[in-house]
Structures are given as structure tokens and as C-alpha cells.
Amino acid sequence: MKTTALDILRDTYGYPAFRDSQAAIIDHVSTGGDCLVLMPTGGGKSLCYQIPSLLRPGAGVIVSPLIALMQDQVDALRQLGIRAAFLNSTLSLDDVRRVEALLHRGELDLLYVAPERLLQERTLALLDAVDVALFAIDEAHCVSRWGHDFRPEYLQLDILAQRYPGIPRLACTATADERTRQEILDNLHLRDGHLFISGFDRPNIRYTVVEKDQPRQQLLRFLRREHPGDAGIVYCLSRKKTEETAAYLNDQGIPALPYHAGLGGEVRRKHQERFLREDGLIMTATIAFGMGIDKPDVRFVAHLDLPKSLEAYYQETGRAGRDGLPANAWMCYGLQDVVLLRQMLAQSDADQMHLRREQQGLDTMLGYCEITTCRRQMLLGYFGDELPEPCGNCDTCLEPPETFDGTVPAQKMLSCAIRTGQRFGAQHLINVLRGSEGERIRQWNHDQLPTYGIGMEMSAREWRSVARQLVARGLFAVDPEGYGGLRVTDAARPVLRGDETLQLRRDLLAAKATPDRKARKRRAAALDALSADVAQLDGDTEALFDRLRAKRKELADQQGVPPYVIFHDKTLAAMAVHRPMTSEAMLKIGGVGESKLERYGEAFLGVIGESPIESD
Ligand code: ADP
Ligand code: ZN
């Protein structure tokens, strides 16, 4: 009987059904078609080329720029009983020869190659001589000269169309705007321009933006309340800050490592490896860390600084929760961020067009921070995906922010800026408005102004919130030189004249106390979500889950592979809930295929068997 895609999904991967467009894509490629696949992170792109590679004669060749991940990817496939190998610059010549020999003998299902390695004549000649099932071009957005992940070698991949015209090509990526899509289709000569787009939504990620006050303490509170023992990424703007934040967290007893482009290649490699292999490690990183981080159980992505654009934000937060379990995207944002980024833009010597694009990018990002309606609706809308109803899983949905008529406070602050000559920063304006008696106030005779002391009704903090929103909305422009002096823009005139009113957001100032039970409950809910028939999760199930994790770590360490390569959290959670006692029952757990049952069935059945359910 002929093996079908569904057979492979069930027997090899241990999953019961395809998601969304997976079946259609696999069918299209298996029968020889080209296509571009746009799917969010964690959507399941890899199966779209792995299964056709298993169905078609020859080996599937996967082009990927992520050399550091190839070993883990190959390890994970071997665990499934799939014959996989990679070719890149980390291999010795002997290793390369071994892989080539396997390919020659037809003993490989999948071969991962770095683009520069693929383009070498030696590799191309090798591929000429063997059966190739398909070419998959992963992270295909790297072909775009405009994107920040541009890889020049990707432009040369058009050679695949010329040299292997009959072999199907599949390009895939999680991020590509309209223009990048076209560039990919053109450059890789994907016949018929076939495009598969899945929705961009990541429903398991909860988006939250908090007003920046004492960022480190806020981060610490967030970690202690929501993520004790979890792995995650904390993004910072500067290298220095990644190091300081890591040191701070370590001092607080939370294991963290820094990652930025200034660290040597060896250190970076080591930190990344520890992040992948250890449970519950936090990476404090610049944007140098991230592309293709395949770790499925990153439980949160935190931003201590504002990303430059909504695209960057979505890509970075997308690294959380690839396994589909609940995850947090948490950002801390304040007046200083806006001032700093506006200044950086103003000082930039990039050309006009580029500058305008960056300006728009920042404005959209600020709009996202200040929004008082559903954040997910805005995010998805921005990427051309409509979400008809508010999501119920972002901070503005869960705790709708209050707004108030801010016209008068805005007028006071704007006129105060005009009266003081439009060169002072927010803090000084607030001092004047609140009638403070500082040295600088006297020195400039600002206590003689009509705006002196007209803002006593609001706290300094509330005024900072007003200033931030005026900058974010472009009513204040930031002085590119100096100390963030605020200048009133033309956009502010109608408000000053009283022709327009201004709704402002009232920041939830004092961070609301959330009970410590929350994290436990969240985790329980995650386990619970796996099984409708287990209405309430008891301590026993959670204890078993922890024991299964310990067994997994032990097995992973023995083989020197990351724990998730053995089983995902989701699979262990399902075991804890359903407590399979036989091999047959074990095979029904999502993520347990034949090969893994053979390797690990006994070990995990043993753990489950030793865990009696307490009855009371
Ligand atoms: P992407 O490459 O799109 O980010 P992956 O291919 O790594 O995503 O898949 C994300 C996770 O979802 C993986 O753990 C994968 O095994 C799992 N997965 C993919 N397809 C299915 C499916 N049909 N059923 C269950 N799990 C799936
Ligand atoms: Zn929402």
C-alpha cells in the first residue's frame, strides 16, 4: 500500500491531523509544484517540506542561513527516525565526505545546507549526480535587499531554477511584506507564483505594554509573578544594557546570560547553546539574537526598550510560544524611549526616503503602544489580516484603559513649551507647570511666567504621561541635539486654538498587585487546555509533569541534545493528564510517533507507572 502524507504525519511525527494549509502545500509540492509559504512562527512550516521530501524519491535539500541550528534540527529529525544530515562550514573534511557518501548511496531523506556551501561547485556537482526530491529555501525573506536579514548569497539562489528546472522549489518565511514576497517569487523564479498564506495570528501570545517606571524592578516583578523557572528572552537596545540586565537578574537568583554582537563568536555560540539546552535560562539580548531560534518553549519575550518598528516587534515577540502553549510578550515603555528614538532618527544621515520609512515605522510603533483598543487587532490589521472581534488576550482587552479629555492639560503643556522658548525637556516643563522652586527655574526667571504653577492638579508622573503622549502623537517634536528639548509642531495648533479636542490614555500608574498564584494558574490552565475532560488540574498531575520533565532532561543530557528534541512540553503535559499505561495508549499522545515510542516509551511509561494517583 502506498504511504500517504497523513500516514507519515501519524506514524513518524505522532500528530493526528494537519493544520490549516499544510495538507494543500504538501500535496502541491509532492506533485512537483513550486510555491512560497507564508506562515507565522510555530505554524508548522517545516513539515511542508519534510513530508514531501519523504514522499518523493531522493533527498530534500533545505537551504538555511542558520548554521548554528542545523545540528539540533538534524538531531531532532533523527529522533523521529528520519535520515538527516547537514553540510556547512563547521564540518571537517572527513565529515563532509561522509555526508556526501550517504547522499550518493541514497541513504538520506533530508540534507540541510548553508547557502554559501550550496553555491560551491563541489556541492552543485554532487547534487547533479544524485536524486533531489525538492529544494526548500528557509527564511526566504533573506533575499530582500531592504530587509535587515539580507544575505547576499540568497540572490544567487536563482541558479537552482536554471540548473535544476524540474525539481520543485518551496520558499518559506514568517515575515514578508508585499514587496518582499514579490522579490522572493521573482528571484527564486517560483513557477506560477503560487502563494500560500496562513493568518499571522499567534493566539497563544498575550501582548502587554506597561508604562516604564523602574524598568528593572518591573521586569523582576513580571518574571517572579508570571514566569518562575521559565525560559525567555529580554530584548535591550544596547550591548551594555544586556550585560547589566543579565548581571542584575543573576544577582536576584534568576539565571540569565547576555548576547550581543560585541561578544566573541565562541561566547555567543556557547550562550546560545546553553539557552537551547538548559531549562529555564533567560537570554538578555540585542536584536543580534533571534533569527530562527527554534526553541519551542520560550515562554516570554520582554522588551526593555522600544523596537524600531512594528515588524521588528512582531518578529521578536513571535519567538515566544512556538509550541502553542500560553506565552507572554511584555514591553515596558516610557517617555525616554520616545525621546531617544526620535533623536536617533533626527541625527541619522540616511537619505530622505529611508528616513521617511523609519519615521513611519516609529510612528506606527508608538501608535501601538498608546492604543486603547485591542492590540492584536491593530497588529494583525497592520499585516493585512482582519480580526473581527477584540481578542480577549491582550492587556487592553483584559483591563481596558481609561481615557480622559486631555485637551486642557495638553494646552497647558504646549503653551508652557512656547513660553519657555521651545528648548527645554519634559522634566523642566513639568517643574514649571507644577510651580517647583528649582535652581534652573530661578535662573531662567521661569517663575515669572503665566504658566508657572498652573498644573498643580496633576502629579509629575501624570504630566510625564501627557508629555509622552504628545510626543508619540507628534504634537511635540524632539530637539535632535542636546537634552530632548520639546518643540511645538504644526499638528499641535488646532489643539492649542481649541479647534480640536484630545483624548488621552490614563496610565495605570501603580502597577497592579497580581497574586502570586497567577503563574501557577497559568501553567495549570495550559495543562488543562490539553484536555477538556480534565476539568480541574490537581497537584498530582503537575507533580507528574515535573517528574516527566526531569526524566526528559536526564535522557537529553545522556545524548547531548536539547530536551525538546526528545519531547515537547506539550507532549509531556498530555502524558501527565492522560497517564497512558500501555504503548498503544502512548501512541495516542500528540508528538509520540513510532520511533520515539521505541526509544523512550518504556522510560516514560515507567515514570507514569510509578506515580500513583492519590485518592482522598
Ligand atoms: P515553523 O517552522 O513554522 O516556525 P515548525 O515547523 O517548527 O514551525 O512547527 C512548530 C511546532 O508545531 C513543531 O513543534 C511541530 O512539530 C508542531 N507541528 C507542526 N505541524 C503540526 C501538526 N499538524 N500537528 C501538531 N503539531 C504540529
Ligand atoms: Zn485584545
Structure description:
- With 616 residues, the chain is an alpha/beta fold.
- It is globular and about 90 Å long.
- The protein has 4 domains: 5-197, Rossmann fold (3-Layer(aba) Sandwich), CATH 3.40.50; 205-333 and 371-399, 3-Layer(aba) Sandwich (Rossmann fold), CATH 3.40.50.300; 403-506, Orthogonal Bundle (Arc Repressor Mutant, subunit A), CATH 1.10.10.10; 531-609, HRDC domain (DNA polymerase, domain 1).
- The protein has a 7-stranded parallel sheet, sandwiched between helices. A 6-stranded parallel sheet has the order 8-13-12-9-11-10, with helices on both faces. The chain has a two-stranded antiparallel ribbon with strand order 14-17.
- The relative contact order is 0.09.
- The protein contains 28 helices and 17 strands.
- The model is unreliable at 510-517 and 531-537 (pLDDT under 50).
- The structure holds adenosine-5'-diphosphate and zinc ion.
Secondary-structure topology with pairs:
Elements: H1 5-13, H2 22-30, E1 35-38, H3 45-55, E2 59-63, H4 67-79, E3 84-87, H5 93-104, E4 110-113, H6 115-118, H7 121-128, E5 132-137, H8 152-155, H9 159-163, E6 169-173, H10 178-187, E7 195-197, E8 205-211, H11 215-226, E9 231-235, H12 239-251, E10 256-259, H13 265-277, E11 282-285, E12 298-303, H14 310-317, E13 327-333, H15 335-347, H16 352-370, H17 375-382, H18 395-398, E14 402-405, H19 407-419, H20 426-433, H21 439-443, H22 460-472, E15 476-478, E16 486-488, H23 493-497, E17 503-506, H24 517-529, H25 539-559, H26 569-578, H27 583-587, H28 594-609
Parallel strand pairs: 1-6, 1-7, 2-4, 2-5, 3-4, 5-6, 8-13, 9-11, 9-12, 10-11, 12-13
Antiparallel strand pairs: 14-17, 15-16
Helix pairs in contact: 2-3, 15-16, 15-22, 19-20, 20-22, 25-26, 25-28
Zinc ion is lined by residues 374-376, 390-391, 394, 396-397.
